[in-house]
Amino acid sequence: xxxxxxxxxxxxxxxxGDDAPGGGYxxxxxxxxxxxxxxxxxxxxxxxxGATTGAVVEHQLPRAFAARAGLYGVVCGVNDxxxxxxxxxxxxxxxxxxxxxxxxxxxxxxxxxxxIPARLPVPPGMRTLLRERFAFANAVLGEVTGDTxxxxxxxxxxxxxxxxxxxxxxxxxxxPLGHHTFAVAAAGAIADRTATTVAA
Length: 200
Prior knowledge:
This protein is 49% helix and 10% strand. The two termini are 31 Å apart.
């Protein structure tokens, strides 16, 4: 069966922070599928804990592109920002991801980053450095999505994402409320894009 929705990325996509009753994770991907009325069998989640943008390009993008889905969700980059960060490589990988997926004619939805460094247990100097990296990443996401026509959810500008209940205790992964909120926002953005396309 062909895929209607394919999600690529790191543990945010994998669903960490939103435990499923039978084990594993639920997360925003199946929640988004439910919001859109998609059959579970047509929703594929390629997200993997610890994945960098490079890993997503190398290992997930070929599988996602081959699925020829009409909709892709992409969230990755935090692992680059908190560990092995190379600005040029980071931007190149994001451009590869979004330009490749958009070239198929699919709708692609992603998000920028809220103030994740604010919740991490790191020294003040490191928090300042991380905030600079996240600001750079948000600027890159704005440019790349603008160039490719991907949908960008503005988590950085949404005060809801500063609420503690949106996050797990580690400060890095969304709690169930965060995953639910993301899915609702993504469904709304997709509906708006669809309505605009039909009207045109």
